[in-house]
Specification:
With about 425 residues, the chain is α/β, with parallel strands linked by helices. The protein has three domains: about 130 residues, 3-Layer(aba) Sandwich (Rossmann fold); about 140 residues, Rossmann fold, CATH 3.40.50; about 110 residues, Homeodomain-like (Arc Repressor Mutant, subunit A). A six-stranded parallel β-sheet has the order 2-1-3-4-5-11, with helices on one face. It starts with 7 loop residues before the first strand and ends in a 34-residue tail after the last helix.
Length: about 425
C-alpha cells in the first residue's frame, strides 16, 4: 500500500492587509497547487501581534516577510527551516544571516518607473516616500535609488516623505502634501513608493486643482487593484514579481523540508512590467485650455458630462475650446469624452462576471445600446465580443501587459537542490 505523503505544518508570517504580502501568499498557493507538496498553512491577517513566542511554535517550517527588523529579531531564535522574503538592499547588513532570501529588486522597480517617465518626455522628477522608520527601510532604499539615478543623470530630484497618515493627521498630511506639490517645477513626473502613497498624491492634486498627467505625471508601485478603483484618474503602476517570489520561496522551503541547505542564498526577482494608465500618460500641450479641459474630462467623463460643461469649467466658449482641441489633438471635445468612456468600459469588461448594462451606466453611456454602437464603430466588435476575446487571451496570458514584458523563467525551474546556486544581483489552518 502506498504511503500517504507527510503533511507539513507551515507558518506564513505576512500582513494580509498589504497587496505585496497578499500576492506573495498567492504565489505560495500557486506552487502548492502545481506540486505534490502537502502543507497545512498557519496564516494570520497580521502576524506582527503573534511574533512573541514564535520560536516555540510546533511546526515544520516558516516563510516570512523580513523587511521589518522586529521579524528578523523574533525569528533569529527559530531553529526550523525559514525562508525570508523582502526587498533588495545595497547594504549587505540589511539581509538576514544564514537564511535563504527571496527579494523584489528595488533598483529595477524604481528604474523602470523612472524610465517610463523619461519616455513621456518629462525633465523634472520627484519621489513621494514614507517617513523614516525601521519598518519602512525598504521605502528608504527606493528613495536612495531614486536619488542615485538623479545624481547619475545630473538632475535635481525632489524627495518628500510626508507623515504617516491617520484619522488625526489626515488634514495636516494633505495640506503639507499640497504645499509640496504646488512648489514643484511643472510639468513633473513623480514616482510614489507605493500605490497607496500614489493615491494620496492624486487626491492632493485634485484638491489643489493640479492637472494629472498634464502638470503632474504619476506612477506608483504595486499595481494594486484597490488603488485603481479608488481614484478618478486611473493610476499607472509598476507590477512587482510578487507571485513569482511566492512560488520561489515555496520551492526553496519544499526542498529544505527534505534536507536541502540554502544558507545565505539570495534570489532577486525583477518587476513584471508596467500597467500604463492615464495618470502617467503625459503629452506636451501648447495651450493651458487644453490641459484644463483634459483634466476635467478625466475626472468626470463617466458622469455623463457634455462639451458645454467642459467649456464652462475652462472658462471659454464652446467654439473656442473646439478650435483648440482640433488644432492640438485633431479631434473634438466630444470625441475625447467618448474615448475616455470607451477606455473605462474596456477595463470593466475585462473583469470576470461583469455586466454590460451596469458598465454602460457606470461609464456614462446613455444606454447599453449606445455603448454597443460605440464599440462597433470604434473597435469593430460588440462589448460581449470584446469581453470574450479578452477572456480567451487571458487564458493564454493571465494579465496582458501594457508594455512588452520580458519574463524570464523561474530561477529555480528545473534545478535540483544541490544545483541551486545563490543569485547575487545589483490563526487558522487553510
Amino acid at each position: 500500500m502506498a504511503r500517504a505523503p507527510t503533511v507539513h505544518r507551515i507558518a506564513l508570517l505576512f500582513n494580509a492587509n498589504k497587496i505585496f504580502d497578499r500576492e506573495i501568499i498567492a504565489g505560495i498557493g500557486e506552487y502548492l497547487s502545481s506540486t505534490r507538496a502537502s502543507w497545512d498553512l498557519y496564516l494570520e491577517e497580521d502576524f506582527r501581534c503573534r511574533l512573541q513566542g514564535i520560536e516555540r511554535w510546533q511546526g515544520h517550517g516558516i516563510i516570512a516577510e523580513y523587511d521589518d527588523p522586529a521579524t528578523c529579531e523574533a525569528l533569529a531564535r527559530v531553529r526550523l527551516p525559514v525562508v525570508a522574503i523582502g526587498g533588495s538592499y545595497a547594504d549587505e547588513s540589511m539581509y538576514p544571516q544564514d537564511r535563504p532570501y527571496v527579494a523584489t529588486d528595488n533598483f529595477k522597480l524604481v528604474k523602470l518607473a523612472y524610465d517610463h517617465l523619461i519616455e513621456a518626455g518629462l525633465q523634472n522628477f520627484a519621489f513621494f516616500s514614507l517617513p523614516e522608520a525601521g519598518g519602512n527601510r525598504w521605502a528608504q532604499e527606493r528613495e536612495r535609488i531614486f536619488d542615485g539615478l538623479m545624481r547619475r543623470d545630473g538632475l535635481q530630484g525632489h524627495i518628500y516623505r510626508g507623515v504617516e497618515t491617520s484619522a488625526q493627521s489626515w488634514d495636516t498630511a494633505v495640506e503639507q502634501l499640497v504645499e509640496w506639490v504646488r512648489g514643484l517645477p511643472k510639468p513633473i513626473g513623480i514616482i510614489a513608493v507605493t500605490d497607496a502613497r500614489a493615491r494620496q498624491l492624486l487626491q492632493a492634486c485634485q484638491f489643489a486643482g493640479i492637472a494629472v498627467p498634464e502638470q503632474v505625471a504619476l506612477i506608483g508601485i504595486d499595481n494594486d487593484p484597490l488603488a485603481r478603483v479608488l481614484t478618478r484618474v486611473p493610476l499607472s503602476s509598476v507590477i512587482q514579481g510578487t507571485t513569482e517570489m511566492g512560488r520561489t520561496a515555496a520551492h526553496l522551503l519544499h526542498q529544505m523540508l527534505h534536507g536541502a541547505q540554502f544558507t545565505n542564498t539570495r534570489i532577486m526577482v525583477p518587476p513584471a512590467g508596467i500597467n500604463v494608465l492615464a495618470s502617467s500618460r503625459h503629452e506636451v500641450r501648447n495651450h493651458p485650455h487644453v490641459m484644463q479641459a483634459l483634466h476635467f474630462i478625466r475626472q468626470y467623463a463617466c458622469q455623463g458630462i457634455k462639451t458645454e460643461q467642459v467649456a464652462h469649467y475652462v472658462g471659454i466658449s464652446r467654439s473656442s475650446l473646439e478650435w483648440y482641441f482640433r488644432r492640438e489633438l485633431g479631434r473634438s471635445v466630444h470625441d475625447e469624452i467618448l474615448r475616455f468612456k470607451l477606455d473605462a468600459a474596456k477595463r470593466l469588461l475585462q473583469a470576470a462576471g461583469s455586466n454590460a448594462a451596469d458598465i454602460a451606466v457606470t461609464c456614462g453611456f446613455t444606454s447599453v445600446q449606445y455603448m454597443h454602437a460605440v464599440f462597433k464603430r470604434e473597435l469593430g466588435c460588440t462589448p460581449r465580443e470584446y469581453q470574450e476575446e479578452f477572456a480567451a487571451g487571458a487564458d493564454a496570458a493571465r494579465q496582458p501587459p501594457q508594455r512588452p514584458k520580458k519574463r524570464s523563467p523561474s530561477p529555480l525551474a528545473g534545478l535540483s537542490a544541490p544545483a541551486l546556486a545563490p543569485s547575487l544581483d545589483d490563526g487558522g489552518n487553510l
